[in-house]
Structure formats: C-alpha cells, structure tokens
## 1
Amino acid sequence: MNLYTLLIIGVGGFIGSVLRYVTVRLVDSKLNALFPYGTLTVNVIGSFLLGLIYMLALRKVGISENARLFLGVGFCGGFTTFSAFALENFSLMEQKLASMSLVYICISVVMGILALAAGIWASRFI
C-alpha cells in the first residue's frame, strides 16, 4: 500500500459518495414515498457495478489493478457499502457456504440496525 493507491481509492470514494448523495436525493424527491427508494437504488446499482468490476478483474479483461481499486474499492465503496456486502455473500454461496452467508446476512442486518440505534442513543449524551 502506498500513497498513490490511497489517493486512487480516495478519489473514487469521493466521487461515489457525492453521486450517492445526488442519486438518493433525486430518486427520493421524484417518488416522494416513505420507502427508501433512493438508497435501494444506489445499493442495487452499486452491487451491479461491483459485480461487473469483480468479473472483469477476475478475467483480467481490460481492467488494471488501479482501475479495480478506483472503481471497486473507491467508487463502489463510496457509492454503497452494500455492494461489498453483496459480493461477500455471493462469494460465500459460490463456495457452498450458504448457511454461513445466511448467518452473515442476519447478523449484519440486525447488528447494523442495533448499532445505528446505539449510536443515536449515545449521541444524546454528547
């Protein structure tokens, strides 16, 4: 790991984060619904993009290591962390570890919600 690698990831993350914000706001303002369509949109798009990037990198077809880091780790990581979660679960299922994937999904969702609630609760004391 070097400074250039971190810069590539950081720039990708910046672009992904900004695009996530814009996309969520745009989708949610158009649909004006209680359901978080904007977040769902970025999660699905980010997962799709990471799947493409993963397969291109795996096949070594026209994607350099720097491009993989910029797009996969930086952009998709900034656009949505759900894409990494989806890829990890897909990998577990490919390895015939569906039960481990199910446990990971359940723990991630439940703990994520509980951690969010704990953060909200803790913020009251700051």
Note: The chain has a mean pLDDT of 90.
## 2
Amino acid sequence: MSPAMILLFMACEVAQLVYDNPLDKDDGEVPALVFSPSTIETSVGGSAVFEIFAVQVAGVSGIHTQIAFNSVRLGVTNVSPGDFFDDVNQSPMFFTVPANPSTAVDTLDIYYFYLGDGVTKEGTGSVATVIFNTKMTATSSLEFTAESEFVDPDDIAIQINSLGQGTVTAQ
C-alpha cells in the first residue's frame, strides 16, 4: 500500500448514524402516540414545538390525548389540529381543554374525532401541533397519560401499546 493510500485510509472517519425517529416503532409498540421530535433544546422564554402523531392505528374514529407537564416550567402557547382526520367527505371536530394553571403538574386534553357513523381512519398521521413556551432554566418532561385513548365508531377503546414521552431543556 502506498503512503498516500495509508494516509487517505487513516484520515477517513466512519460516521456513527443515530436512528432516533420517534415514528419508528416495533410491531409490539403499535398503535402508539408519540411526540416528534422527542427532545427539544431552547432558551428560557423560547418556544418548543411538538407534533403529536398517531402511529399505525386501524379503525380509529376518535383520539383523545392527555399530556401531563409541569406548568411552573412550561406554558401552552398554541394548539392546532393535525391532518390525520382530513377527509374530503367528512370534517373532523377538534378542541382542547386548557390546562389548569393552579397546580404544578398540569394536563392538556386534546380531542380530535369524526362525527357520524362508520367513518374511520388508519395509518400514521399528525394529531396536533402543540407549542410550549419555557418559563425557567430546567429540563421538563411531557408525558401522555393513561387517559389518552383511540376509539372506534362505537366509542369502544382501541388499545394503545406505546405512549411516548417528550423532553424540553431550557437554558
């Protein structure tokens, strides 16, 4: 091997790929609710924008997500609907129940559903986008609670096998 080839070979670094897409779930973990991205770093007073995804669902006509977070560290700036239930023939309903700021651990409830008989959706898609603002230097967790659910057209719960978590770090 020539000296030039040795130098070229030794100078090359092998990239270490990181596979941390929150939408990549194993078969035993679906259907799932996840935050994307799962981790955000920002400054105090900055925004943290999370998209909530339903992952590999089938026969769903309604979604309720309940997110637990620390309202001393984070505030909810805006919540907007995703496109999971977009349909040319049926308009979905979307509303939120704001968090109660009187407690340290708060919840945000998001409801997204079809009205009508037999209308369902399947696959993976965006449920909502939530913008949090950071109030202090801290690392804060976001968690879907056990109150979160997928339902079929008869309002029968569909088991969720994985509830994701999110993290916001403000510095």
Note: The two ends are 50 Å apart (CA to CA).
## 3
Amino acid sequence: MTRYEALHSILRRLPERDLALFTTGMISREAFDIRDRPENFYMIGSMGLLTSLGLGLALQAPTRTVWVIEGDGSALMSLGTVPLIAAYRPANLIHVVLDNEAYESTGGQPTISGTVDLAALAQAAGYTLVRRVNDERDLDAALDEALARRALMFLLAKVSGRADDGLGRVSLTPEALTERFSQALRQAASANHNAAAEPVSPC
C-alpha cells in the first residue's frame, strides 16, 4: 500500500463535517491533489506541531471529528504530545500516522520508525483504540471502526512509494489557507447555534 493509496482511502471516506489536518510536505501535497476541501488544513512548514494543533482543535470543537494525518518523521518529532493527547482523551480525535520509515520531503533519509514501534507507544500512553495496518483491506476495516465508534484512536499505517515527480504544491498561501479553514469553522459554529436556537413546534 502506497502513501497515496492510503490517503485516497481516507479522503474518499471522510465525512463532510469532519476536520482534517495534514502534516507538512508530501502528505499535504498528495491530500491537496486527491480531495481539497475547506475543512482541510495543510501544515505548510512547522514540522512536528500538527498533533498540538489537532489536540487544541478537538478540545475547542467537541462536536466535530478531527483527523490528524502525519508521517512517521512528524510523529517522532512530537512524541511528547502523544501522552498529552491520551491524558485529555478527546473522543473526537483520530490520529493517523502514515509510516514509510523515511523523511521523504528532505531527500528520503531513513527515520527510526523501523525499530521504534509508534503504535506501541500510543498504546502505552493510553489511547483508547490503537490499530496497525499494512494493506488497504485492513485500512478500510480500521476506518470503518473509526467512523462507527466515537473514541480516541491511533492508526498506524505502514506505507511505501514515493510521490510522483509531477506532484504539485498546495496552491493556497498560508494566510489564505488559515482564513478558509477559519471560515469553515465559523460557518459550522453558526449553523449549530441557529439549529439550537430554533423553537420546538408543539405536538
């Protein structure tokens, strides 16, 4: 299973209201190519900080499911956030690590994820659900579970493959991306507020 195939499986199943955060580099570029949407946030730079952003967003928007989708290099840079997430245990957070055992965006240098079990670390930290997958069938099963259950999940997907040579970059500036994502959050919050304020018709 390539990283692109894994991202395609995730993005084609992603519910419209769900918020999806993608780490810097090739994961953001491939996700933008597969299915761009206002509810997607692409981290342009700031490697390793996506989990902190995802945790804060999950706590501030408890009615929305938040997907944090990063690579093994990014996950290894922010290991301290893993027990922090587990301590807060947001039931609306799904943490996905696409592990190709390499820093692809900087030249393909190997990471240490071939000998460090990131799923075992998440398990030890206290994530409610921890799943490890190696192919598309198992990934689809794990995604079914993630969508059916409201629980903090860590999903480690072992992937292969390099990005296509012609893969484009995220065409939005950081400022435009931030404004678009913020607008999607404001519109959802307004819709929820209006729905809650509607009077209930008598029977």
Note: The chain is about 45% helix and 15% strand.
